[in-house]
Amino acid sequence: MIANIPTDLLRTFVTVVDLGGFTRAAQSLGRTQPAVSLQIRRLEDLLHTKLIRTEGRQVSLTEAGMALSPQARQMLRLNDDIVAHFADQALEGGLRVGMPADFSHNFLVEAISRFALDNPEVRVEVECLVSKDLRDALADDRLDIAVAIAPDDTAPFLVDTATIRPFWAVGETYRGDPRDPLAIVRHPDPCEYATRMRNALRENGRKWHTTLVSRDLSGVQAAVRAGLGASALTPATLTPGMRVARDDEGFPALAPLKIGLFYKHAALSRAGHGLAQHLMYHIGEAGNPAIHKNP
Fold it and tell me: Which end of the chain has fewer CB atoms within 10 angstroms, the N or the C?
């Protein structure tokens, strides 16, 4: 018979991880420290593995704990989404949300705007940074929610992911010889998109050279439309004047990206859980491959 995992045990586990210790977790959960320790032991007994190491007041995750963390967060998100769906209470308070610059120009800003209109008592502040800086800001409590590229499934505070498949974008009048070195436009390194472009070209034996480097997405888009080169974009960032490049034009497939939703369960308000649910839906919609097709 399959055992059921009580969500209160998972919430205690995630709270210990998020707050960095048993004492702060106990204060947050309104329990005694021995009660929190007992719940962690119950969870470990249920899963037949050690999840948390303790050295003095410092805690760290075992390999099994790191594997459990994102799955526990997903279960808690579903639990909290169900509770929020049936709760007849207005959301309120302030939220600090971070997102990559290439998502700030389209669907996520629109999604946040719709959420703010539906919840006028919620104040949302948005900050755009590169993904690594977003994850660091969340860890340092400078953000409540971050939408960022997930380097792997065990990234700290990762709640859920959606796969987005970047593609090669070129100007709509592009006519290039696949035997020639490819001109590319990109963001500065470190950049997940630039890395995927170079890896794909290298693996397929095609040379390239960079014609423009821009920190701003609009600069990359303008360069692509003007014919300065090709770049890796997503369905949400393909604009009129561009088209999706084809395989037979010498453009190898790009590796997918995992866009992650990051937040600390122990610190997130009801309004934050509501916005997180809203954002995850729109991230998944933006990653739908049916959104873009080759002409």
Answer: N
**What is the Cα–Cα distance from 26 to 5, expressed in whole angstroms?**
20
Count of domains for the chain? 3
Q: In 3D, which of 147, 172, 169, 95 has the Cα closest to residue 258? A: 147
User: Taking the complete model, does pTM exceed 0.90, yes or no?
Assistant: no
Query: What pLDDT, in 10s, does the model give residues 113-149?
Result: 999 999 999 999 999 888 889 999 999 999 999 999 8
Q: Which residues contact 5 (CB under 8 A, 6 or more apart)?
A: 43, 46, 47, 75
Q: Name residue 278's beta-bridge partners.
A: none
Cβ distance 144 to 272 under 8 Å?
yes
- Residue 131 is part of which domain span? 90-160+257-291
**1 occurs within a structural domain:** no
Beta-sheet strands, E only, within the chain:
52-55, 58-61, 93-99, 122-128, 145-149, 158-164, 167-171, 182-186, 208-213, 231-233, 242-244, 257-263
φ, ψ (nearest 5 deg) of residue 232: -90, 120
